[in-house]
Design a protein that fits this description.
By secondary structure, the protein is of the alpha/beta class. The protein has four domains: about 110 residues; about 260 residues, no CATH class; about 190 residues, Nucleotide cyclase, GGDEF domain (Alpha-Beta Plaits); about 70 residues, no CATH class. Helix 14 packs antiparallel against helix 15. The longest helix has about 35 residues.
């Protein structure tokens, strides 16, 4: 069945375009998906120990020592002085001193600020309080800087003595994304049309000893911020930088006796006691606000700024669209295994490539949305292909399920080219089974034909199930008779299909025993069946006419299997096997040679076997056959008498052979005897 690929491809192309368009408009769910994908890069990178910072914590232990916050500022001044006495390079106090010290420590604190370089904080807010401390900022470009910066209506500045004496005062902001996670921080903001540097930028300026900032702008917004003696920091249009959360910081309590870790470090004296510190969500964990500023400084100082190129969105959209269409064509044409490998490769490779760009080049490309989009479009293509193929299979099933075996229907569904007359020549193992004495049984139901039908159904249902479970094909039912074969339409090795047929025959006998127990309980006569199995080269395929045909097999091997089933009664066994079936699997079952027979209509004889599962004296049986073939009739008779008593499973067979031996003793066939018994019945 030819698959019409144009419509499925068109539908998938429309879906790919819709996903690309959705990315252009970038609604909230798409943006959050992208940001969460970028977070994954941060979570998987190696974290290093900072050599730039040490945090001196105003923790619970310090509150126990000095009382509740706020402390007298002379106490805080003492700890700043202690940091410098222990070799600190710069002290940062990310604390807002918006009100005068009620306990009278401002004079000592201001004197400390005058003698030691300290960077402290001011904050953007809704309601202003205190005079904000500004810095010299020069804008270079044709665009107004304030058109692009984060804008706040008010701010809270430090008291005058702190603002005048501190070496630097920076704005503390968090600027979280829509989901509340801080991934980017502005280096500059505006309050009432006045531009102010944020705390990380101010720390770097003071550390290097510079006095001003330069900001480069163009028509697209802010491009970069420059501190003369350090370098230029590239930003986005809103003066923001992506924070690289790749650093851990040494921490000591302010009450610690050992301050050796502050030597040659930027020392951040920060509130960490529970209830006093402000917490912010980051891609890695929930952190304190001062740690956020430290991560930004580390990012800037180590020139480790993450960058999301302006053209990144365009690349991602084009990539999504192109790869979606390519994989759609693959999904509609290639095998399922190939498609699985392709989509798995894409899903695995894209994030790996994205992480490589992140780890080696600090580039932020979003492959989360492309992966999801490509996968959905690919799945849609697979779905369309499945629908088309399913419709074709259902059409075949509807046309042929009433007169073809289910296995054949399935094969036709996979390969509709089989729907033609003719067949192939190959080796099959064929099984015939029939209920013995069925005519007599039928007479018992002459007044109850429905009862006979019910009985046959009770018998054929489990027998059919056994054949089906083995992978065999039910060829046909002929009244109470069943014909099945193996090695077609699904090919198997020469050993397997022989073994399966014999195993089925054994299971059928066991299943019949179970059925007979039920019949006896119902006061009904038990059933007996004969099973003939033969392996031979036959023609198998669709036989019939152009209007109606059946999947079956024809050939001498089929006829021989039917004849063997007919001879089971003569030999008194439930299963009779041809030598071609037995030859390749002699070590798989306990085969018992019975005779060499030429069935009715055949001149050549074949050796026939049965298979038993009970205890059996094989030596005694083989001794009998040896004497029989050697025409030693007396010894054969003596052995038969012993066998009848010991090998009761074959009592009927031995009695039959006893009569034959007696006849041969009286009518010796001579030296040229071919040892073949020629059957006169079917």
């Amino acid at each position: 069945m030819k698959l019409n690929k144009f419509k499925p491809f068109l539908y998938c192309a429309i879906a790919a375009i819709l996903f690309a368009t959705l990315r252009i408009y970038d609604p909230y769910p798409v943006e959050i998906l992208r940001l969460k994908g970028l977070d994954y890069y941060q979570k998987t990178q190696n974290v290093k120990q900072s050599e730039l910072f040490t945090v001196v914590e105003l923790d619970e232990a310090s509150l126990e020592k000095h009382g509740q916050w706020p402390w007298r500022r002379d106490i805080l001044a003492g700890y700043v002085e202690k940091a410098y006495l222990n070799g600190a390079g710069l002290v940062v106090l990310p604390i807002l001193f918006a009100e005068e010290d009620r306990l009278g420590g401002d004079d000592i604190f201001s004197d400390m600020l005058y003698h030691y370089p300290v960077v402290t904080a001011q904050s953007a807010s809704i309601q202003g309080k205190g005079e904000l401390v500004s810095q010299k900022i020069t804008a270079i470009g044709s665009v107004e800087l304030t058109d692009w910066l984060y804008d706040y209506p008010n701010g809270i500045g430090p008291i005058e003595s702190v603002g005048l004496n501190a070496q630097g005062v920076g704005m503390t902001v968090t600027a979280p994304e829509l989901d509340g996670v801080v991934r980017r921080m502005p280096l500059m903001i505006q309050v009432k049309d006045e531009v102010y540097p944020t705390l990380p930028l101010e720390v770097l300026r003071v550390l290097i000893g510079d006095t001003s900032y330069q900001v480069k702008t163009d028509y697209a917004g802010v491009k970069a911020i420059r501190i003369k003696n350090i370098g230029t920091f590239k930003t986005d249009e809103n003066a923001r930088v992506w924070i690289n959360y790749d650093t851990e910081f040494d921490k000591i309590s302010v009450t610690s006796e050992d301050w050796s870790k502050v030597k040659d470090r930027i020392v951040v004296i920060a509130l960490t006691a529970e209830g006093l510190s402000n917490s912010v969500a980051t891609p890695i964990k929930v952190s304190n606000g001062h740690e956020l500023n430290m991560q930004v400084i580390e990012t800037l100082a180590n020139d480790n700024i993450l960058s999301r190129p302006v053209e990144a969105t365009l690349y991602e959209i084009v990539f999504t669209l192109a790869l979606s269409l390519v994989l759609t064509l693959c999904a509609l044409n290639f095998l399922w295994v190939v498609n699985s490998i392709l989509i798995s490769t894409v899903i695995i490779t894209l994030p790996i490539y994205g992480f490589w760009l992140f780890s080696s080049r600090n580039l932020l490309y979003d492959f989360t949305y492309p992966v999801y989009s490509i996968f959905i479009v690919f799945t849609l293509a697979i779905f369309f292909r499945f629908i088309h193929e399913y419709k074709g299979k259902m059409l075949i099933k509807k046309q042929f399920e009433h007169y073809l075996a289910p296995e054949i229907v399935k094969k036709l569904q996979k390969n509709p080219n089989m729907l033609k007359l003719g067949g192939d020549t190959q080796d099959l193992t064929i099984l015939f089974s029939d209920i013995r004495g069925f005519t007599t049984i039928s007479e018992q139901f002459k007044d109850n034909p429905q009862g006979l039908t019910y009985l046959i159904n009770r018998y054929l249902t489990p027998m059919t199930r056994i054949v089906m479970e083995s992978g065999g094909t039910i060829d046909k039912y002929i009244g109470d008779a069943l014909m099945a074969f193996w090695n077609a339409p699904l090919p198997e090795d020469q050993i397997t299909h022989r073994i399966k047929a014999i195993e089925v025959a054994i299971k059928m006998q066991l299943e019949l025993t179970t059925l007979n127990i039920q019949l006896i309980k119902e006061d009904k006569s038990p059933l007996a069946i004969g099973i003939g199995i033969n392996t031979g080269r036959v023609v198998v395929g669709n036989m019939g006419s152009d209007q109606r045909f059946d999947y079956t097999c024809l050939g001498d091997g089929v006829n021989l299997a039917a004849r063997l089933e007919g001879q089971t009664k003569a030999y008194g066994v439930g299963i009779l096997l041809g030598q071609e079936t037995v030859n390749l699997i002699r070590n798989k079952f306990k085969f018992i040679e019975l005779d060499k027979i030429a069935v009715k209509g055949k001149k050549e004889g074949i050796t026939v076997y049965t298979v038993l599962t009970d205890q059996f004296n094989y030596i005694l049986h083989d001794t009998f056959l040896k004497h029989y073939k050697n025409r030693d009739w007396l010894k054969a008779e003596n052995t038969l008498n012993k066998s009848i008593k010991e090998n009761t499973e074959l009592e009927y067979y031995y009695n039959m052979m006893k009569d034959r031996v007696a006849d041969l003793k009286d009518n010796d066939p001579g030296e040229d005897w071919d040892k073949v018994y020629r059957a006169i019945s079917k």
